[in-house]
UniProtKB/TrEMBL annotation, chains A, B:
Protein name, entry field: NAD(P)H:elemental sulfur oxidoreductase
This protein's UniProt keywords: FAD, Flavoprotein, Oxidoreductase, Redox-active center
Domain FAD/NAD(P)-binding, chain residue ranges per copy: 3-306
Ranges annotated as spanning the membrane: none
InterPro entries: FAD-bd_OxRdtase (IPR050260), FAD/NAD-bd_sf (IPR036188), FAD/NAD-binding_dom (IPR023753), FAD/NAD-linked_Rdtase_dimer_sf (IPR016156), Pyr_nucl-diS_OxRdtase_dimer (IPR004099)
Highest taxon of the lineage: Archaea
Required co-factors: FAD
Length: 448, 448
C-alpha cells in the first residue's frame, strides 16, 4: 500500500489527492494544509472582500470533512509542514503546537506561491496587507473597514481586481505601478492603456511608472506611500507587487529550482528527487509556443498539474502535462481583459520576429442592441503562425475569445487557419465577421 | 480588363465583389441583386420583426450607393437575373420591366437559398408567410400585426427564432415540427429537450413529431393548420420547414448539383463550368471532420466562400476554402444553443463509432453570483478525436464554447488535447474547471 503525502490543499494539492485516490483505491493519502480551507479559490478573494461574494467560506469547493468522507483522503488542516527528509522519506508537520512525522512513499509538493514583499523601508508597518488565501478575507475586511483611502502597490491581476473591490466598498484608491503600464506581464502598452482609461474613468488615482520607495507610519500604522515622485496619504496599503514560488519544502525534499526560480519538473511533474513531485504554482511549466520554461502561476494549470502528479504518483507516468500558452483573464468592473500566447514584449525578448494587428470591433451584429466594443491584438510569426492574442471588451464573452485563440495557438494555427475557422454566428452573440477573424484578416496584410 | 458579374448581393456575393475589387483595381465588377438591399443579414429578420431591432434597414451593412462609391462596384438592385448563357458568357437581367444583357469573363453565382414550400393542400393560402430576406420584414410585420395566434411550421433555426419574436409581440404561438425534436439537424434528442422545455415554459404550444398535412382557409385566408393529430385555429402561419439552394441560374451557367443537392464546387469555389464560381448558401461545402460534402447554409462560411470566389475570379486560385465543421448558434430568449462538429445522429448515419459525455455545469465559479447552468454534450471517435460538441446555456458566453470546440475539432484535437487546453479562468467568466474540460474529462472514462 503506497503512502502518498501531499503538501498543500489548494488547487494542485487537492486535484492530486483526488486523482491519486481515483486511480488507487488502496493508497494511504494524506493532504497537509497550512490554513483552515482546502480546495480554496484565491481568485475569489477580491469578490469576497468587496461583498459581491457574501461568504468567503464559499470560496472553498469542498470542506475537509467532505474530502475525508467522500474520497477517503486524510486531511490535516491548520497543519504546517516544516521539514522534509528525503532520505527517511518523512514530512514534519506542526499542528496545534504539536509536531508529528508523516511517512511517505510518494511526496507531492503543492505549496503554491506567496506574495513578494519588497525590502523597502516601512514595509513591515501594520496596515500593509497582502492577499494570498481565502483565509485572509476576514482580516482584510476588518482592516479595510474604516479606511477611506487605500494605496495599492502593484498593477498586476491582484492590484487591478482589488482596485475594483475597494471602489465597490466606497474607498478612494491610489494605485502605484512601477512599470509604465497595468498588467505588464500580460498586456502590451497599447492594450493596457484601454484598461488604464477605464480605471481612471471609475475614479482610480493611477500612478504608472512610479516606483514606491518607502512607507511612512503615524501612530504605529502605515500613513503614507512615498514614491520617487511624491508622498501620498493612505489609511491602508494593499501590497500586490507579485508572487514567488513557495519552494522551501520542495528544496528540502531534494527538488531543484529551474531557470525561472520555480521548482523544475518534467512533463510527469517529477522533480528529479526520487518519488518527489511538484505541481501548481510552486512549479515551472513549459510554454507550448516557445518550448521554454515559464512560471505562470494560475489555477487552471495548477489543477491539471495536480491531476498529473497525483495520477503518476500512484500509477507511474500515466499522464503528461503538455504545458501552457499563458492564457489569463481578469476584469475591472465591466471591462474584461483576456490574453493568450506571447505578447509583443515577450516575442521581442525571445528575439522572435512577428507581425501584429490591432483592431477595434463589436461583440454582436452592428444592428443588434447591447453590443460592446472589443479591442483585439493579434501577433503572428514570420511563417504566419499565431503567437498570441490580447483582448479587452465590455462583455464577458471576450474572455472566451482568448480561449478560442488559445486552442488555435496551442495547436499551431496560422493566420489563414484562424481566418477560416468555423466560428459561429448569430446577431446576439457575435458579428458575422467575428473579431478574431477580422484580426486575422488584418494581420494577413491583404492576403485574406 | 476582366469583367466580373456576381449574381446575388448577400453575404457571399458582396464579399466576392469586395475581394475581387481589392485584388484587382481595374476589374469591371457588376453585382446583381433581386431585392432592394445588399450586404443584408437575413439572420436579423426575427429581431426586426419583434422590434428588438428597430429599423429593418439596419440589417444592411452597406447601402448600394456606399458600395458603388467606396468600392467602385456597379450594383444593380431590384434586378432579377433570369438567364445565363455560358457560351456567350452573358447574364440576362430584368430591372424595372426592362431586360438587359451583361457580359462576363468571370461569373460568380451567389444566389443563396430559398424557403422550401411543401406541396400540401392549402399551402398557397394568403396568410402563410415565409422568411427569407430583410426586404420581407415590412410585409411580415404588417401581416402579423393583427394576428393573435400564429402557427409556425418547422422547428429549425427560423422556427425557434420566430417563436421568440412572436411571443415578444404578444402572440400565441403554436409550433409544429414533424421530427421528434427541435433543431433536428443541429441537436440530438437529449440536448434538444432542454430547448423544448424552455419553449414550453415561455408559453409556446409545442407539437413535436406532428406532421402538418393541410392548411384550411376561411374568407380566403388561412384559418387552421391540420396535422395528423388535430386541427388548430390560427390567424397566420410562418412556414419554416427548411430551405433549399436557389440553384437555377447556376445550372443554366453549366454548374452541376452535388450529392447534397447544392451546387458542386471545389476548394477554389469553381463549379467546373469554365469561369463560373459559386459561393455561399447555393453551394456545397466540405465537412472537415468527415471529408464529405455537406450543405450547411450559414452566413460566416458564405462570407468566406465569397471572399475565396472573388479573389480567385480575378487572380486565379489564390485562395482555398477548407470547409466547415458545422458550427451554428441560435437562441430562444436567454437560452443560447450552439453546436459544432457531428451530432450523435450524424455520426450514426455515417457509421462512425463514437463515445459521448453529457454534463451539466455552470458558466462561472460556483461562488460567484450570476452564474448560469450550461449543458454540454461531447462526442469523440474511438481514437479519442473530438467529433462534436453541443451546448445549451442561459448565458451568451456558451455560444463561444462551441467556437472553442470548433477550433479543437477542425484541428483534430483529442479528448486529452482538449482536457489540457489552456482555457482561461477567473470567477466571473468561467469555473476553474471549464465545462468543456469537464466534458472532456468525463468522456475520457477515468483516463483523465
Amino acid at each position: 500500500m503506497v503512502r502518498v503525502v501531499i503538501i498543500g490543499g489548494g488547487a494542485a494539492g487537492a486535484s492530486a489527492a483526488a486523482r491519486a485516490r481515483r486511480l488507487d483505491p488502496n493508497a494511504e493519502i494524506v493532504m497537509v494544509e497550512a490554513g483552515s480551507m482546502i480546495t480554496h479559490a484565491p481568485c475569489g478573494i477580491p469578490y469576497a472582500v468587496s461583498g459581491v461574494v457574501a461568504d468567503y467560506k464559499s470560496l472553498m469547493t469542498y470542506t475537509p470533512e467532505e474530502f475525508e468522507k467522500e474520497r477517503n483522503i486524510k486531511v490535516l488542516i491548520n497543519a504546517k509542514a516544516v521539514d522534509v527528509d528525503p532520505d527517511k522519506r518523512t514530512v514534519t508537520v506542526v499542528r496545534g503546537g504539536r509536531s508529528e512525522t508523516l511517512q511517505w512513499d510518494k511526496l507531492i509538493v503543492a505549496t503554491g506561491a506567496k506574495p513578494l514583499v519588497p525590502k523597502i523601508p516601512g514595509v513591515d508597518l501594520p496596515g500593509i496587507l497582502t492577499v494570498r488565501l481565502p483565509d485572509d478575507v476576514p482580516l482584510l475586511k476588518s482592516e479595510l473597514a474604516d479606511a477611506s483611502t487605500v494605496g495599492i502597490v502593484g498593477g498586476g491581476y491582484i492590484g487591478v481586481e482589488m482596485a475594483e473591490a475597494l471602489l465597490h466598498l466606497g474607498k478612494k484608491v491610489i494605485l502605484f505601478e512601477m512599470m509604465d503600464r497595468l498588467l505588464p506581464a500580460a498586456l502590451d502598452a497599447d492594450m493596457s492603456s484601454v484598461l488604464a482609461e477605464e480605471m481612471k474613468k471609475r475614479g482610480v488615482d493611477l500612478h504608472l511608472g512610479e516606483k514606491v520607495v518607502e512607507f511612512r507610519g503615524f501612530g504605529g500604522k502605515v500613513s503614507a506611500v512615498v514614491t520617487e515622485k511624491g508622498e501620498y496619504k493612505v489609511d491602508k496599503v494593499i501590497l500586490a507587487v507579485g508572487v514567488k514560488p513557495d519552494a522551501d519544502l520542495a528544496l528540502k525534499a531534494g527538488a531543484k529550482l529551474g531557470e525561472t526560480g520555480a521548482v523544475a519538473v518534467n512533463e510527469y511533474m517529477e522533480t528529479g528527487a526520487p518519488d518527489v513531485y511538484a505541481a501548481g504554482d510552486v512549479a515551472e511549466k513549459v510554454h507550448r509556443v516557445t518550448g521554454r520554461k515559464v512560471w505562470i502561476p494560475l489555477a487552471p494549470s495548477a489543477n491539471k498539474e495536480g491531476q498529473v502528479a497525483g495520477g503518476n504518483a500512484v500509477k507511474g507516468r500515466v499522464l503528461r502535462f503538455p504545458g501552457v500558452v499563458g492564457t489569463a483573464v481578469t476584469k475591472f468592473f465591466d471591462l474584461y481583459v483576456a490574453r493568450t500566447g506571447l505578447s509583443e514584449e515577450e516575442a521581442q525578448k525571445l528575439g522572435i520576429k512577428y507581425d501584429k494587428a490591432v483592431i477595434k470591433a463589436r461583440t454582436k451584429a452592428q444592428y443588434y442592441p447591447g453590443y460592446a466594443p472589443v479591442h483585439v491584438k493579434m501577433l503572428a510569426d514570420q511563417s504566419g503562425r499565431i503567437l498570441g492574442v490580447q483582448v479587452l471588451g465590455w462583455d464577458h464573452i471576450v474572455a472566451a475569445y482568448a480561449d478560442i485563440a488559445a486552442v488555435a495557438v496551442e495547436r499551431g494555427a496560422t493566420i489563414e487557419d484562424l481566418f477560416f475557422a468555423d466560428i459561429g454566428y448569430m446577431p446576439a452573440t457575435a458579428p458575422v465577421w467575428h473579431p478574431l477573424i477580422v484580426a486575422a484578416r488584418v494581420l494577413s496584410r491583404g492576403k485574406l
